[in-house]
Design brief:
Layout: E1 15-16, H1 17-25, H2 27-35, H3 45-59, H4 66-74, E2 80-91, E3 94-106, E4 118-125, H5 131-135, H6 138-151, E5 157-167, E6 173-175, E7 180-183, H7 188-213
Parallel strand pairs: 1-3, 4-5
Antiparallel strand pairs: 2-3, 3-4, 5-6, 5-7
Helix pairs in contact: 1-2, 6-7
């Protein structure tokens, strides 16, 4: 009889970058949000502006804010927006499923023999992004890992586009009208190291989830 495949448990059946990031910051906050279903997210006006910009990019609808509308036209983008991808891998402790929602994704090369693709991640805010910070982004690593698991190849091109915001003299938060684009180069070691890190987190999440639900 074939051995039953064990799947490490998590509240949503998969691990997203945002869930893992919250877990890294605080196990208690993770339990509140993902297991107890509490609203624990903190938002400020910089985050609210980022959501407006993201929604405008996704829908293509004008906002009435000339800077946002112009930036939506100017920013580099690919064919698909808010692309959802899911991939699983077998760790020594069980199967782990990763989920990602990529800001913009190119799938033209996905269907040919090379199975190559590329993606970009957008970041707004007043905290400055740098090439080093982009290279170390866990979110970029998370998405690249999913693509590698699906295709067996590293993404051909990976970019992080930083769109700065600032608080104006009238107290309102607005985009500055600038775009800083950083290319991120990853290798297979980066992916494998990330999968090792995720495995450790997934094992801990599985244990906590079972404990909270009294699962033996």
């Amino acid at each position: 009889m074939a051995k039953q495949k064990i799947k490490l448990l998590s509240p949503r059946g998969y691990l997203s970058h945002s869930a893992l990031e919250i877990f890294r910051q605080s196990e208690e906050k993770y339990i509140d949000k993902y297991i107890n279903g509490d609203a624990v997210d903190y938002e400020n006006d910089f985050m609210e502006l980022g959501k407006v910009f993201s929604t405008a990019l996704e829908t293509g609808k004008k906002t009435g804010d000339i800077v946002i509308d112009v930036m939506c036209e100017r920013i580099p983008k690919y064919d698909e927006r808010e692309k959802e991808l899911t991939a699983s891998f077998i760790s020594p402790y069980g199967e782990i499923t990763l989920f990602g929602k990529l800001d913009t994704f190119e799938n033209i090369l996905w269907i040919n023999e090379n199975r190559l693709c590329h993606f970009r991640e957008y970041k707004t805010g007043s905290v400055k992004w740098t090439p080093k910070k982009a290279k170390e982004s866990k979110q970029i690593l998370h998405y690249a890992t999913i693509i590698w698991l699906l295709t067996g190849k590293l993404p051909k091109d990976i970019w992080l586009d930083y769109i700065p915001t600032k608080r104006e003299s009238d107290g309102e938060v607005r985009l500055t009208g600038e775009i800083f684009s950083f290319e991120v180069k990853l290798n297979l070691s980066d992916i494998l190291n990330y999968m090792t890190e995720v495995t450790k987190l997934a094992v801990r999440i599985d244990s906590i989830y079972k404990r909270e639900l009294n699962i033996k």
